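REQUEST FORM: STRUCTURE PREDICTION
Request ID: SP-0412
Submitted by: Lab K.M.
Chain count: 1
Length (residues): 241
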Amino acid sequence: MPRRRRRATGRTAVNEAARLADRLQAAGYTKRDIARIIDRDPSLVSQFYTKNKGAAFVPALREVLTAVEAGGITDLPGLRAIATRHITRRTTASGARARVRGKAVLITPTGTGTGRVGAQAIASGSARLRPLIAEAARRGLRLAFTVRLARTGYLHPSGSRTDSPGIRRDVIQRADHTEERSYGSARTGGLDAANFARRVDTAGGDVTAAVQQWLTETGRIQPDARILHLEVRTWQPPASR
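STATUS: Completed
RESULT:
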């Protein structure tokens, strides 16, 4: 009789990063939480399982898991601080630090740049906007941003000059009871990118938290309002052109 071929059963063996992520999820953390802890996009955590990635984050995940299980540390900023100390950049064959793959920071010679993120990226801290803000700060640029959230999240009525003085752009009202509003413009001078970059650094790299804190501190939104869309724009101030 011809020999039957054995069919593969079960899924591919889970790597160490995925096993550690499983244990963190069993402790109550989501993949998005884990992504925030290691300061990466949630898609990378999913690739621990689908593409065998994550080896570089194993030491950090082990330390985080120890902090959760033995140290009683549960807050995300505290766990992120622990992880950061144990994440090292990959090296090339020559020993040099490898470049991080990702989208380029697109800022033109005149300082014009734009970055947008949606709900998934916002939930993990809008990390892809951080290089744009950092580069704008390095160049001494100005910036503005547009946010969308539920109408009830704003403290001022639509079109209020107190909310966003000098912005002529109409408030965009959507059928799902959300609104888009812009803060800062070239006409009014915009916001200092360096100051905003410091806010992001203080928030542990969480751009969403930095924007929300600014909007709350300046009396524009409810403290518990949830940002659904975020866009950052940069330009060079006239005096430095």
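NOTES: The first helix runs from residue 16 to 26.
Reviewed by: T.R.
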